[in-house]
Amino acid sequence: MRTLAKANWFLSQQLGIDLRTLLRAPWGMALYIRDLMRFRRTNALKLRFQPCLHDWWQQAGAVGTEYFWQDLVVARMIHDAAPVRHIDVGSRLDGFVAHVASFREIEVFDVRPLESTIPGVVFRQADMMSENSLGREITDSLSCLHAVEHFGLGRYGDPLNAQGSMLGIANLARLLRPGGTLYLSCPVGEDEVFFNAHRALRPNTVKAAIEGAGLRMVQCRLFNSSTKAFEVVSMDHAALAHGPQHSLGLYLCEKPASTTV
């Protein structure tokens, strides 16, 4: 099943061939023609044809992915924490960043350019694998959601670096002021690279990188793809392990008030 899912992802997202859409289209067309014939009997307005063939099978919205839940959960955390300054690194503009920008200003660092001006968003193009251009201890609140796993793979025009994720975590830590909070997420699994899409990292690998950067992991949550919920995992045992139902780790980290890295 996982192999089929990956094959469908490659065909649809990379080649533009969605087999499920293609196979469902004839049935959608039949439903369209049926409804068109019925509607024309009572419609008095000018009628143009613009078939939408697949919405019969859609739910009210796409809320099943870890992206949706992570963006919502962390945005609510930041709202409740009310930090003085919040900086985001590489998270989704059309998800998490938009959520936060709806109630406060958010600064965004990304290796990619951004041509649009977005209300509530202050953008800065920056490479998180280069600490020299970033500054040190500049914010009390920082997020990097579903992004650090891409660092160093060249997918977004960044320089290749096999240690990109570890270097990125270290540089994230440098941005935090003592007492500051980091919200970090990345795919969980064995420590491996799916080149050039992303990495998967064991939660205890992430924990070691966080602690090596001078931060303290306060909480670990794993997204359960079966229940569509983030489950808090104890950090006192090898519980920073993962299971086949888990797809994303969400880590809440703090910089101790007396530590400088």
TrEMBL record:
It comes from Piscinibacter gummiphilus. This is DUF268 domain-containing protein.
